[in-house]
Amino acid sequence: MNTQTLIATRERISPYIHNTPIFTSHLLDDMIGSKLFFKCENFQKMGAFKMRGAINAILQLSEAQQQRGVVTHSSGNFAQALSLAAKNLKVPAYIVMPKNAPKVKKDAVMGYGGRITVCESTLLAREVAAEKIVTDKGATFIHPSNDLNVILGNATAGMELLQAHSDLNAIVTPVGGGGLIAGTALAAHYFGSHCKTIGGEPQIVNDAYRSLQSGQIETNTTVHTIADGLRTHLGDINFPIIKQHVDHIICVEEDEIVKALKLLWERLKIVVEPSSAVAFAAVLKNKSYFKDQSVGIILSGGNVDLETIKFS
């Protein structure tokens, strides 16, 4: 891994993604006592940062592999990202989704041309269904977060943030499967100037926090968090990057996530999903740590089901 690898990734995917805007708020700056820069991946194509990793992963396949198609298992943003990326490149996309996935997400995948296989709502069922497609179709499996090309694609959000604000002291991201924070950590390491990478994670599903403490990949016994995009655990490809380059992870409670979400909606006037608010919640919770610093916050996406959000 080196600077040139990341630069090549950025050049490769730039025709297919948005260089998303960076928002600021004097009121939120005053609230934290810091200068905050919000990287708005809710304005990315298909509404989340995952488009970056999906398009890079497909572009790295051979022509023969692209013709046979790609497959993933996901009930959320990566299902949509891989479907849209594949559509743009005229590549077949096979998406394994659990039967309890929201209809709105299934409709979005089909709208992007993804070919859905419905399975039982367990990780094992997802993996078995995806492996069958690999065998039957010859498609290449692409993991939503534990894939180096996905991680490198994700890194480009942090690269853009640092290109615009090279003096950042820290970048804070939400932590779920680990693909975004690993990519961001690489961007901060190679393009930042003493820029730390810090994670925000729901206390209820704090496997990444525990993994850093124990030095091995931990898992969760519950997934009952409002931040539905962060219910997955780390992988053997992204975890070594996280161990080496992530400074620490801040755990936040559910009410702190809702408070942060409400502030983002009210003050930035943008729609973000609960998972995005976790990074800001971590900053809100640790104002003294971030005081007088320049802090980048990656708002990971905006694909929210409005029916599930209750602010009171």
UniProtKB/TrEMBL annotation:
<dbReference type="GO" id="GO:0030378">
    <property type="term" value="F:serine racemase activity"/>
</dbReference>
<keyword id="KW-0663">Pyridoxal phosphate</keyword>
<dbReference type="GO" id="GO:0070179">
    <property type="term" value="P:D-serine biosynthetic process"/>
</dbReference>
<dbReference type="GO" id="GO:0005524">
    <property type="term" value="F:ATP binding"/>
</dbReference>
<feature type="domain" description="Tryptophan synthase beta chain-like PALP">
    <location>
        <begin position="13"/>
        <end position="301"/>
    </location>
</feature>
<dbReference type="GO" id="GO:0018114">
    <property type="term" value="F:threonine racemase activity"/>
</dbReference>
<dbReference type="InterPro" id="IPR036052">
    <property type="entry name" value="TrpB-like_PALP_sf"/>
</dbReference>
<dbReference type="GO" id="GO:0008721">
    <property type="term" value="F:D-serine ammonia-lyase activity"/>
</dbReference>
<keyword id="KW-0456">Lyase</keyword>
<protein>
    <submittedName>
        <fullName>Pyridoxal-phosphate dependent enzyme</fullName>
    </submittedName>
</protein>
<dbReference type="InterPro" id="IPR001926">
    <property type="entry name" value="TrpB-like_PALP"/>
</dbReference>
<dbReference type="GO" id="GO:0003941">
    <property type="term" value="F:L-serine ammonia-lyase activity"/>
</dbReference>
<comment type="similarity">
    <text>Belongs to the serine/threonine dehydratase family.</text>
</comment>
<dbReference type="Pfam" id="PF00291">
    <property type="entry name" value="PALP"/>
</dbReference>
<dbReference type="GO" id="GO:0000287">
    <property type="term" value="F:magnesium ion binding"/>
</dbReference>
<dbReference type="GO" id="GO:0030170">
    <property type="term" value="F:pyridoxal phosphate binding"/>
</dbReference>
